[in-house]
UniProtKB/TrEMBL annotation:
It holds the Pfam family BPD_transp_2. The chain crosses the membrane at residues 12-32, 44-64, 70-89, 101-122, 142-162, 190-214, 226-253, 274-296. Belongs to the binding-protein-dependent transport system permease family. LivHM subfamily. This is Branched-chain amino acid ABC transporter permease. InterPro entries: ABC_transp_permease, BCAA_transport_permease.
């Protein structure tokens, strides 16, 4: 076995997992507190990438573009919540699914009108567009390493906010009993708006970090949304800790599987067949893991009493 390749793919797995966690954390907060099924969460991820590409082009700096993107996506999330989603809280989940699917179509067409059908690129500064030695003789792309570090820092900050602050206390209380905190005089509408804005900002952060690696294009949030939903189901709906652990598991299974399954299958199958089957089997393993978890623990690995537990 190529141990250097294994180390690189493990790091790539953490990178994918942390991007999935940023998406899943925002989505699980929204569902856990607001009981809102938001299929348009991937569109906020896409808008984060497009905003970053635009701001980077205007300022000539990726870092400034990223700093401008976060409040922009937060404001967009607040506007979406107030204008489109606030009236859906009392409706059933089917109505929410249909309405947020409509938002996906709206964002895709609005993006096509504003930016055009051709994908965009986000240029990186020189210090991020190079490799660094994580251990002697083992180079790794600096930007991917920055994604891993940023993901862990954001995960720690989010855990601190949810577990140790007054806002976090309200979030946990809202997840446990929305009617009670409303009866205690808490402005539940403002809390919902802030939570949705926070979830949008986390999705935008994932989008701006994925943009330089992937092509910034229309519909880029739809495929990753499926993996994000799998993360939430495996981890437990409403659980930040569950979302983190499930996202890392899925990231590792996907990247390590795609790298090493061809070699394993090559022992029993023709080379061309092995190369074709390996990515499909790697993707299937994610859904098999979800089915196994649901069979053993239908509420997920870490069913919360309140968000963050």
């Amino acid at each position: 076995m190529n141990w250097l390749l294994l180390l690189e793919q493990i790091l790539n797995g953490f990178q994918l997992g942390l991007l999935l966690f940023l998406l899943a954390a925002g989505l699980t907060l929204v569902f856990g507190i607001m009981d809102m099924v938001n299929l348009a969460h991937g569109s906020l991820y896409m808008m984060g990438a497009y905003f970053c590409a635009t701001f980077t082009g205007w300022t000539g700096s990726f870092l400034i573009g990223a700093l401008l993107t976060l409040p922009a996506v937060f404001i967009l999330g607040v506007v979406v919540e107030i204008v489109a989603l606030r009236t859906l809280y009392a409706r059933d989940h089917l109505d929410q699914v249909m309405a947020t699917f409509g938002l996906i179509l709206f964002f895709n067409e609005a993006t096509r009108l504003i930016w055009g059908p051709i994908g965009l690129a986000i240029p990186l500064p020189d210090f991020l567009n190079q490799t660094v030695e994580i251990i002697p003789g083992v180079p790794y792309p600096a930007f991917r390493l920055a994604i891993i570090i940023t993901g862990f820092l954001v995960a720690g900050l989010l855990y601190f906010i949810v577990s140790r602050t007054k806002l976090g206390m309200l979030i946990r209380a809202g997840a446990s009993n929305r009617d009670m905190i409303g009866a205690l005089g808490i402005n539940i509408r403002l809390l919902f708006t802030l939570v949705f804005g926070l979830g949008a900002a986390l999705a935008g952060l994932a989008g701006l970090m994925a943009g330089p690696i992937l092509s910034v294009e229309i519909g880029m949030g739809e495929s990753i949304l499926i993996l994000t939903l799998v993360v939430i189901v495996i981890g437990g709906i409403g659980s930040i800790k569950g979302a983190f652990i499930a996202a890392i598991l899925i990231g590792l299974i996907d990247t390590v599987g795609r790298s090493f399954l061809p070699e394993i299958l090559d022992l029993i199958l023709p080379s061309q067949t092995a190369a074709t089957a390996a990515p499909a089997i790697s993707s299937m393993m994610i859904y098999l893991l979800m089915a196994l978890v649901l069979a053993i623990k239908p509420q997920g690995l870490f069913p919360p009493k309140g968000v963050g537990q």
